[in-house]
Specification:
The structure holds two protein chains of two kinds.
Chain A lengths: L5 H17 L9 H11 L8 E3 L9 E3 H7 L17 E8 L3 H12 L7 E4 L16 E2 L8 H11 L6 H21 L13 E2 L9 E2 L5 H15 L4 E2 L4 E7 L4 E8 L4 E12 L23 H8 L4 E2 L4 E8 L13 H4 L4 E2 L13 H12 L11 E2 L5 E5 L2 H7 L3 H5 L1 H8 L10 E10 L2 E2 L12 E3 L16 H23 L5 E2 L1 H12 L29
Parallel strand pairs in A: 3-4, 3-11, 4-8, 11-19
Antiparallel strand pairs in A: 1-2, 5-7, 6-7, 9-10, 9-20, 10-11, 12-18, 13-17, 14-16, 15-16, 16-17
Helix pairs in contact in A: 2-10, 4-7, 4-14, 5-6, 6-14
Chain B lengths: L5 E6 L2 E6 L4 H7 L19 E5 L7 E4 L10 E4 L20 H6 L11 H5 L6 H10 L2 H7 L8 H5 L6 H16 L4 H11 L4 H9 L2 H10 L5
Parallel strand pairs in B: 1-5
Antiparallel strand pairs in B: 1-2, 3-4, 3-5
The chains are: A alpha+beta, B alpha+beta.
Bound molecules: flavin-adenine dinucleotide (FAD), iron/sulfur cluster (2 copies) and FE2/S2 (inorganic) cluster (FES).
The site of one iron/sulfur cluster has 15 residues of chain B, from α3 and α4.
């Protein structure tokens, strides 16, 4: 099946040869100036031709990747004139759009705040829980150890995000962090603990304290399924395979629910709601600049499109997070995430010659840029020291056998069982052989602007999770987005409940869409461009793994 | 695509030639399917892509995840949209982690005939039948441990002659274990108490008041735990 071809085996021999000397040493971390230079030279975000300025809407003039601009500057899927708003299918207090982590947390806290379960509705694109949240492996940050503090966590987030985050949001997140973990503990999340209850915590890229909590390497799956079970315990209704295709507004200028599209019957339904929480997650499936992605099938930036049409502002969408360690071999695994925890547990990145070329735990953008520089051919300014696979994919080594060598036999299988299982299926034993990795499109750093209560500034519209921006500025650190969806899912759910209790709705309208369509016309946007995307297109040749174009 | 690098697969009974080395999921897309059901994370975490198949000259019915399984020549494939399974109604805070809790909420556990079909069907290679036996014995901690890597694909449940709804039982066991049997974290409770008393307000106020340069200085100067 897979195992490594001959040419690659020779490189493995070099990795093994250098191992004893590097086993317990790492190069120094880069200075801020060196980081900056590396980013400018090699991070895909710094390629000017990858982006353009928006020609319509509230964030007019802001630079975003072409793939995102193509969706924001696009016509609706359904002609507003053909939608009958007088026939309301569901009438609720709180509508939650997106059944991943943020949405489920928002619904639970809206319920906790006194909204009856039957007055809450979650609508989601796939099944409840099919989301990026389910896929998180590495862990969740929270400053709960004695030698750590919310203030130190604050500093790490601000610095990791290159001082571009909204301080109010960061503060809310670090102060709520330990409370979130305690809530999870009560709900039955099986965090990794010492026998006396002490949380097992490790470093993540850019952390100054070991504050990464985990549940083996299925942290997101464990949190997500517990939250989903809790929502089910509370009988909160969920409408599956029904993505929102448009927000509704009312005659008073408030957001008042959504139009959803039943993917199976291909009919729309009207949901009227006093408060709406946007929790649609990220954008990985846009394959920005052709990169493979770690994200689930439904991560198509729909929430950005919907919010933009009702006048919400967007921020930091020029910053795309590439995860340094996506699988680069075998072809079946290309793009899938190799959690940062592998490096947290001492595995080092090496080039074709077995040389350690960067500290294993630089902030993600810096680490990714270093990998890309190592793989970029010399004639294009790189070092040309990547390993080329038979399908033409390129990557650097991650020296996974080091995990057991340093932390003891069996550590890899215990702490990284999902990765172990993933490779063993293809006859590669990561406890004996290193694995090949290359950056993969991972996270939407920016998103919808909101305040510390998840309010977007548009009456009746709240947001939480990967769809919103400002928490991580231009670069998120690992472990802070699981925390983000819990903190801001909760805050958005509470704020939506409070809003719903006093809100009075006017008559439903799609006037905002008609207005937006006029703007599109004036900007001469091609009428064939439609959004939201809902599902990516992989039929035919597009099913083949995307090769990264390094030129 | 060279001819010798293709295989023939039967998707819902129809033959298609697809490149060798694709996963079942990608092979379906290559063949022209636009997936709506049977797809979620595409990475082996969500259990949405439960699939059964047969191979030529082999009597067995195999079960696996479409996003994690490579196509083979002659594979005869059917995707399962999902396995219906009813979750027992409960609120965790009203339950106790007692041996009988699992059996009381899921009495069909007692119908297990120890045929081991569930174990053979599990794409995560979990010891599913053992977990059922532990559930019967009331050992919640064991069940939680044995089923931690379950992706709730429902393949065991689909194949079980005793009609047990495994993954719901597992979910309950893990929550009971995590909430009531695992030791509570002392430092976590301490920290939550400190935050409630406003212990970090001053320091955070100070950091929030800093300009970018001053903050960058503080960031650079912070000590890093080895
Ligand atoms: C492979 C992987 C590993 C990760 N590892 C970590 C980690 O270790 N630590 C960490 O902190 N973070 C990690 N992350 C990031 C983190 O998991 C996500 O940022 C976070 O879970 C996002 O939560 P969310 O609820 O905002 O979005 P999601 O969990 O993606 O939920 C959004 C939901 O909305 C649905 N949806 C989308 N569009 C619509 C629509 N139009 N209408 C209705 N529903 C819609 C989606 O299908 C999905 O179910 C990882 C992410 C991935 C992909
Ligand atoms: S135990 Fe059952 S539901 Fe869980 S992964 Fe195995 S077969 Fe799927
Ligand atoms: S398939 Fe059902 S009856 Fe057979 S061992 Fe598993 S649980 Fe028991
Ligand atoms: S699509 Fe999620 S496990 Fe296969």
């Amino acid at each position: 099946m897979a195992t490594y071809p001959k040419e690659i085996q020779e490189s493995i021999a070099r990795v093994e040869a250098t191992r004893p000397a590097r086993l317990h040493t790492n190069p120094p971390r880069l200075s801020l100036a060196d980081q900056e230079a590396l980013l400018r030279g090699f991070h895909p975000d710094y390629k000017a031709e990858g982006k353009r300025a928006l020609k319509v809407g509230p964030s007019w003039g802001e630079l975003v990747p072409h793939e995102v601009a193509d969706l924001l500057e696009a016509y609706p899927l359904i002609d507003p004139a053909t939608i009958n708003l007088s026939q309301v299918d569901y009438d609720v207090d709180v509508l939650v759009i997106g059944g991943g982590g943020a949405g489920t947390v928002a619904a639970i806290w809206a319920h906790e705040a006194g909204i009856p379960a039957e007055r809450i509705l979650i609508v989601t694109k796939l099944r409840h829980g099919d989301s990026n949240s389910m896929m998180a492996q590495g862990g969740i940050q929270a400053a709960d150890k004695p030698h750590d503090s919310p203030a130190i966590h604050y500093l790490d987030i601000m610095g990791g995000g290159h001082f571009t985050s909204d301080p109010k949001l960061v503060r809310a997140m670090v102060e709520d962090g330990p409370m979130v973990i305690q809530w999870h503990e009560k709900l039955g999340v099986m965090y990794d603990k010492e026998p006396d209850g002490t949380m097992v915590t490790i470093h993540g890229g850019g952390t100054s304290r070991k504050r990464m909590h985990s549940a083996k390497d299925y942290t997101g799956m464990e949190i997500m399924r517990v939250l989903r079970d809790e929502a089910r315990s509370r009988n909160i209704p969920v409408l599956e395979f029904s993505p929102a295709v448009e927000l509704l507004t009312d005659s008073l200028g408030q957001v008042a629910g959504a139009v959803v599209w039943n993917l199976e019957t291909e009919e729309y339904q009207i949901i009227r709601a006093k408060a709406t929480v946007l929790a649609t997650g990220g954008w990985g499936r846009l394959h920005i600049q052709g990169f493979p992605t770690t994200n689930h099938y439904g991560a198509t930036a729909d929430g950005l499109v919907l919010a933009y049409r009702v006048g919400a502002k967007l921020r930091d969408l020029d910053a795309v997070q590439y995860h340094p360690t996506g699988a680069a071999y075998p072809e079946q695994l290309v793009g899938l995430l190799i959690t940062e925890k592998v490096r947290g547990l001492s595995a080092q990145p090496l080039n074709r010659e077995g040389q350690l070329f960067v500290h294993p735990l630089e902030p993600r953008d810096v680490e990714s840029a270093a990998f890309i520089r190592e793989c970029t051919p010399v004639e294009h300014g790189g070092r040309g020291l990547g390993v080329v696979t038979p399908t033409g994919m390129v990557g650097v080594w991650l020296d996974t056998p080091m995990v057991d060598m340093i932390h003891g036999q069996g550590t890899f299988q215990r702490a990284l069982s999902s990765i172990y299982r993933m490779y063993i299926r293809f006859d590669i034993d990561p406890t004996k052989e290193p694995i090949l990795v290359y950056p993969t499109l991972h996270y939407q750093n920016g998103g919808v602007v909101m305040d510390e209560n998840g309010w977007t500034g548009i009456p009746g519209l709240f947001a939480g999770g990967e769809v919103e921006g400002g928490v991580h500025g231009k670069n998120r650190l690992m472990g802070n987005s699981l925390l983000d969806f819990n903190v801001f899912g909760r805050r958005a759910g509470l704020a939506a409940a409070a809003w719903a209790k006093q809100a009075r709705l006017g008559s439903l309208t799609l006037a905002h869409v008609e207005r937006f369509v006029r703007e599109l016309g004036e900007a001469q946007v091609p009428p064939t461009r439609r959004a939201p995307m809902l599902l990516p297109e992989y039929r035919g040749e597009k099913a083949l793994a995307r090769m990264v174009d390094l030129l | 695509m060279k001819k010798e690098n293709t295989v023939t697969v039967f998707l819902m009974g129809k033959a298609y030639r697809v490149p060798a080395g694709l996963t079942i999921m990608k092979a379906m897309e290559y063949a022209g399917y636009r997936l709506v059901r049977g797809v979620g994370c595409r990475g082996g975490y969500c259990g949405a892509c439960a699939t059964v198949y047969r191979l030529p000259g082999d009597y067995r019915l195999y079960a696996d995840l479409a996003c994690q399984t490579t196509v083979q020549d002659g594979m005869y494939i059917a995707q399962l949209p999902f396995t219906p399974a009813t979750r027992a109604p409960y609120r965790l805070e009203e339950l106790a982690p007692q041996g009988e809790t699992l059996l009381a909420l899921y009495p069909e556990l007692a119908r297990c005939v120890a045929c081991n079909t569930c174990t053979k069907a599990c794409p995560q290679k979990l010891e599913v039948m053992d977990a059922v036996q532990q559930a019967l014995r009331g050992d919640i901690a064991q069940v939680a441990e044995l089923t931690f890597d379950c992706v709730s694909c429902g393949l065991c449940t689909m194949r079980c002659p005793a009609e047990i709804m495994h993954y719901h039982v597992w979910q309950l066991a893990r929550r009971l274990h995590g909430a009531y049997q695992a030791p509570r974290s002392g430092h976590l409770a301490d920290r939550v108490g400190q935050i409630r008393q406003g212990a970090f307000h001053g320091e955070l106020d100070r950091l929030m008041a800093m300009g970018k340069d001053e903050l960058a200085q503080a960031y650079k100067a912070r000590d890093i735990e080895p």
